Fold this protein.
Amino acid sequence: MPKRPDLRSICLIGSGPIVIGQACEFDYAGSQALKILRAEGFRTIVVNSNPATIMTDPGFADRTYLEPLDLDGVAGVLARERPDALLPTLGGQTALNLASELAAAGILDELGVELIGASYEAIRRAEDRELFRETMKSVGLRVPESTIVTSGDEAPDDLHFPAILRPAFTLGGHGGGIARSSSELERMLELGLRESPVGQVLVEESLLGWDEFELEVMRDAADNVVIVCSIENLDPMGVHTGDSITVAPQMTLPDEAYQELRDAAARVIRAVGVDTGGSNIQFARERDTGELRVIEMNPRVSRSSALASKATGYPIAKVAARLAVGYTLDEIPNDLTGTTPASFEPTLDYVVVKFPRFAFEKFPGADETLGTQMKSVGEAMGIGRTFTEAYLKAARSRELDTDAAPTLPAGAHPWFHAQLERAEASLLPTGAIDDLVADDWISLKRSGWSDADIASALDTSEEEARTKRRTWGVRPSYRRVDSCAAEVAARSNYLYSTWGEADELPPEPGRSVVILGSGPNRIGQGIEFDYCCVHASRAFRALGFETVMVNCNPETVSTDYDTSDRLYFEPLRAEEVLEICARERPAGVVIQFGGQTPLKLARALEAEGHRILGTPFEAVDLAEDRERFAALCDELGIAVPPWGMAPTAEDAVRIAEEIGYPVLVRPSYVLGGRNMRVCYSDVEVMLSAFDRGCIVDRFLEGAIELDVDALCDGEETFVAAVMQHVEEAGVHSGDSSCVLPPVSLDPATLVEVDETVQRLAPVLGVIGLVNVQLALQEGSLYVLEANPRASRTVPFASKAIGVNLVEAACRLAAGEKLADMDLAATRNGHVSVKAAVFPFARFPGADPVLGPEMRSTGEVMASAADFPSAFAKAERAAGRRLPESGTAFLSVCDADKSSAVEVGRSLAALGFELCATSGTARALASAGLPVTHVRKVGEEGSGPTIVDLVRRGRCDLVVNTPAGRGARSDGYVIREAALVARVPCVTTLAGAFAAVDAIARARSEDALSLQERISA
């Protein structure tokens, strides 16, 4: 019987697409909560727009809606399902803002839906800056001196600079920053007021350089308060906590100062009125005087909550869900110990460090300075007995191109500097590697140094260092994360490595399957691979294996302690993975679900005698080696674009001239299209070539690009999904919208696609999943590449066709054949569209234009009866709602002008007024279309420029295709203005045609759940 019999059905709002400031930690929270609520007997409904999440899988909730996360989208689901309660505190700022909108609009009252987890009043007291300041004042706590600015107010003129700007109800510090002058303040206020959903910005005194601390706090309806975890930022105030290196528990506070923080946190959560659930509370403390300020409070599960859960083993989201439905902390069992309740505060006998992962290389021209607005795209966590052991583990878990030891922030507390300096001193070379004895090895390893670090210091190879260490019998020991520092008996299966201690929980050999995760989120390898790893664990468990997960990302579902039979929270590098496999002695290792990361470890695993389940490394290497792959395609009679290997830039130019322009220049073995460039001249090729060599391909300009996900058992192939890109070839597959089923391929071409993939996959040696990318140009089909592993499209395809592709791939890896499986893709008359979401607003200075290098951080999915309706819904879900009327601006390069006339004619027929810059205006006028000429920035003449019109809200749609290179082109300024003003901006002609079609023909439909679509 549920604790509250009056609640029978509960709706959870998800967090939507992965964006900077709001990532897969909320999928982790939502999926945890769903497990608990369903186990308690509640009917569960999920509303989310992200297909790559576990919580949007049809098996995790009773009803799953992939709908835009806006007022209309969520209200439509609530009206259809009529749940008893809405739980918004597990879906980040997006869910919290939507809950506030629904409450303020009276929709919840009208539908009889109760808000649980945090009341509307509590949300307002925490998020409304003025109310929060008054609430803190009422309980004797200080916040930074500040001024509230709302829309229409003048900027305060009595400020001391620098000043901190914090827009209300935004995530990841979005729209905020540090103003150091009156002109900066005026510009930033305009942006902040626009970004705040309530048009409110807090302008506060600078506390730059103060120490920053966070506390994760839980409270129940009986007013019990638990401090789950303390977190200390190594970067001082002024750097967003998501971009800071952080450590848990806090390291530098004396006990009385820490108790002051604890007491203050309890007062904050009680004063704000979060009666049931978790909150993240951030403090600033002046190091010398001990002065304390409350910075902010999130009345919900936060990004730091995921970190705190993984750091302590305390399942914050599960506990929060139970508290929301009436339990108290003392009634909720601690899953890790099995003997203590959730009212027991976690105790740590180890140290945890989190490192951010940035992607500035994807956004040339962007300001890389860290500030109050978050810029990191992911994070990695390390666990060790000492600070330096955890710090260096986390640092090498980021999977950067360099292995150089990271430097501490210059503002970091002296204690951290002293610890790292001591560790660095221990690594100074004092002789040859043969001079090290067992005690030396143990000392170096406890300090956190890897075999590779030691080898580099002693001028030898990592393999040699590993051999010497093992010769002395120095192997890692594994300790439990049990939330109680081994004070009580625990049944935890959550492990980390250290050195020179007794081993805990030794496994029986031969019973397990080791699944290698994908590491920190980054552009090109994100939550979709965590989705695959989680489903792999579920599938192999169902097949009778013990499952072992290895990963280092605290945000993910895969690193939840109950996803697998054992979890190793370790870097995904050869040293750590080989030691885990030596301990486990598994039946096999799975490398095809974690993206590119596990593939890099395959050779070392096979060399030590570990069996790779599914597709062997030889097949992976064959597909990655362009020369061998092209030769294989030639043998099969499969066309590939003309290409050549270029050791030097001069060779690249020669090859380009031989195969003909335009060409695609790229390095080998890249992730997310890293450093790919489309070149139209010798000069561009020279600028794009690499010292270490590159591949030069003929670029199939104007081609239709296709993504195919298929399953192969080594003999037969099942083509599961053929997805057509909306943008033409040249836009990275991860950045292009795609549609399933394809909307413009004739039946004969579809048959040719199927037959091509069915011939290629078995000869490659695929056993499991394979993704093949193809291009169709002027009736000819070309294979661009094949990836014999799970691709980023697997979650989208699985949900669109109603087949769990990961489960099927695992069964094939375990020895089943396709003929034994009942696989049939659902054809229910619906069209599904995946659209990408971009972080350009976080990187002013970078040109928001699409190309062969991937730049999106996340994606959304929408389904409807036809393509225009699905595309329009997907654009809305991505935050780019297409206008139905108004003014459309067009400015395109010369090569696109004839096609732009067709776009303009369609828009004019729909009632849009047209405006354009001179060249495009002449083309439109010559075709008989009414058009207003608008000046470019810097162009002579009178009247406003296009940038002026966009900023003033007098333009509703921008179509601007790039001409030439360089971030400061006219097009860049236009695209940047549209981005800031939140005006839909289309940068490809194919995208423009799709948008116009959607505006003309999209129809509104009642929301349908994923379960209904699959069974239709």
About this structure: The radius of gyration is 28 Å. The first helix runs from residue 25 to 39. The first strand starts at residue 9 and ends at 13. The chain is about 35% helix and 20% strand.
